[in-house]
Amino acid sequence: MPTRHQGQPLPSKPPSHPPADTGVTLAAVTERLRHDPVEALRLVRRAGEEGHLPPPEVCAALAQHAAEVRSAPRKAVAEELLRIMATPHPLVAMDLMARTGLLAELLPEVEALRRMPAGGVRHKDIYRHTLLVMARTPPDPVLRLAALLHDIGKPATKVVERGAVRFPGHAEVGAEMARRRLRALGFDRATVAAVTLLVALHLRVNSYEQEWTDAAARRLAREAGDQFDRLLALSRADVTSARREAVERALRRVDALAARVQALREAEQKPQSPLDGHELMAMFGRGPGRWIGVVKQHLAALVASGQLSPEDKATAARIARELVAQMPPEAAPAALPQGEA
């Protein structure tokens, strides 16, 4: 089961600039930016790796050349963005992108979160929440990209009813927005599919209740497929309440779903008898009892050893009859009362 990841704290103040003697000259940076627009993203990645912003003059040069990044090769842009997501300080990188206009050029949907007005009705700062979620995820670039985009559907779905703000359908709207943006940026199909799925499902885990049926838990795990562990990690990171009890309650909910799905998967992996209890009772015209467990365990053991196919009901029925015939009277199935057979 994936462990909880606390991540890095959200900076309370902008990251500082490095000392002046970094060896990075404005002339050199400007020259590289003029000839290679991807250099802007390399500088962002360096900020994410080192944990501080470049010198103010370099930030100014980045802002001056920000629009040119749209002319960079799409594949190179996608690869560099993934590298930025995996840096030790992704929030520093995001701060630099926001300050210089690179965020607006490449990810206008995230820039829209940053500029989203409260509209006179109080609700949490969605951009700050997005950064918190990013900070609390492991350094998995696909997961962090999903964290960055998970709420981009909120500006388009915001409604105010009786003084309360809601965002109905924002997960589905956001998933389609993420799909279009990532495709436009040149991300590969696997990354686009994974991030889109995570955005679409990001609310589902935190809505889990113990009253869910096994079928409902299996359905969510099946929909998430090989992204289920990432979905759990995103759901844990998405809990950003200031109230400790609310956070602990939400994390317990995620852990409970993870444990339940794990138990269901382990049960499904165990060899099963080709005949269930109802089929055995109908076959022998007998009522329930310990004899059913004895027969099913014997048939399951044969399946496990490869001596019986789990779909071979005919052979299983023959073996069951032989086994019941050999049972001592006290262990044999009791006949149903007259009229119930």
Share of β-strand residues: under 5%
Fraction in helix = 55-70%
Q: Structurally, how many domains make up the residues?
A: 3
CATH class of the largest domain: Mainly Alpha
**Distance linking N and C termini:** 47 Å
- Report the oligomer: single chain
Number of strands: 2
In which order are the strands of the major sheet placed? 1-2
Radius of gyration using CA atoms only = 29 Å
Could you say which overall geometry the principal axes of the C-alpha atoms support? elongated
- The CATH topology of the largest domain turns out to be Hypothetical protein af1432
**Helix and strand succession?**
HHHHHHHHHHEEHHHHHHHH
Q: Quickly give the structural class.
A: mainly alpha
- Please give the CATH architecture of the largest domain: Orthogonal Bundle
What are the low-pLDDT stretches, counting only 5+ consecutive residues below 50? 1-9
* Number of contiguous helices: 18
Largest sheet report: 2 strands, antiparallel
| Mean pLDDT score | 88
Describe the structure.
With 341 residues, the chain is an all-alpha fold. The chain folds into three domains: 1-106, Hydrophobic Seed Protein; 116-269, Hypothetical protein af1432 (Orthogonal Bundle); 271-341, no CATH class. Helices cover 59% and strands 2% of the residues. It contains 18 helices and two strands. It has a two-stranded antiparallel sheet. Helix 13 packs across helix 15 (244-269). The longest helix has 26 residues, at 244-269. The protein is elongated, with a radius of gyration of 29 Å. The model is unreliable at 1-9 (pLDDT under 50).
